[in-house]
Amino acid sequence: MAQAHRVEANGASIPAIGLGTFKMTGETCERAVAQALACGYRHIDTARMYDNEAAVGAGLKAGGVPREEVFVTTKVWWEDIAPGDLERSAEASLKRLGLSQVDLLLIHWPNAAVPVARSTAALCAAKRAGLARHIGVSNYTVALLDEAVGAANEPLVTNQVEYHPYLDQSRLKSAIRRHGMAMTSYRPLGGSDILDDPTLASIAEAHGRQASQIVLRWHVQQPGIVAIPKSGTPERIRHNIEVFDFALTDDEMARISALARPEGRMVKPSFAPRWDEAA
Ligand SMILES: NC(=O)c1ccc[n+]([C@@H]2O[C@H](COP(=O)([O-])OP(=O)(O)OC[C@H]3O[C@@H](n4cnc5c(N)ncnc54)[C@H](OP(=O)(O)O)[C@@H]3O)[C@@H](O)[C@H]2O)c1
Q: Is the pTM higher than 0.85?
């Protein structure tokens, strides 16, 4: 059974590979979570917006792994991050998950109508109320992150952001490291265009691995990076965590990072903040 190394970040110990669950609901989601646990995953990522927290909770139960061994993350949707709303959202998530506490509670996206100081205070209060062991943010730019860290009176442990070989996140990565936090890569596989990339194919061939495993190894071989690939396919769920028994050379790491391109960003909803430019 594969076992991920852990990333230490401001008091949190986060398994470097987690199962993403966006777009999986019902029995598909429940099965994927239970299967991931059987393959060695100890980190599951969900959100109120994914409409699958009850299924994730059922999968956790079916997986039968002791609760304290699994790192469970959920997120509060950006429309619910004002004081009061945030706590209510987190409480409702816990109810659906069937848990008394999540390991990590994230603000899913910033909301320009709610000052960072207010949403951060609400997030810290949720931690102090015992709803979450750790707290963090998602889709924060360098400026928003600096502001949130300055406003927080509890440690923030991660900024969950889009990251894959086609998107340079050097500036954000430096800021996150400066704050002692982890960076959690979402959309880590970057879609099928990336997985067909000839550079990845040649590195995959050299290691006798799949392109997806090369991409995930590139993530977790960087200090402070956690990746949360999503799959509902049993074989892929297993392959996606089998990335801790080989290593990429410095040259291979650099060749993969060099695939970044200005138009590499894929997740661009209308309510996104103004993104940082590449370093
Ligand atoms: N914070 C945020 O705003 C935010 C935004 C987006 C995502 N997320 C989180 O990040 C997670 C991952 O991101 P994502 O789901 O957008 O993208 P992703 O994990 O990069 O890609 C998922 C896609 O890749 C396929 N896939 C998975 N493993 C594969 C493999 N080994 N070979 C080939 N294809 C493979 C999956 O298909 P099958 O399922 O059919 O196998 C699915 O279509 C989400 O599930 C969610 O938990 C967070």
A: yes
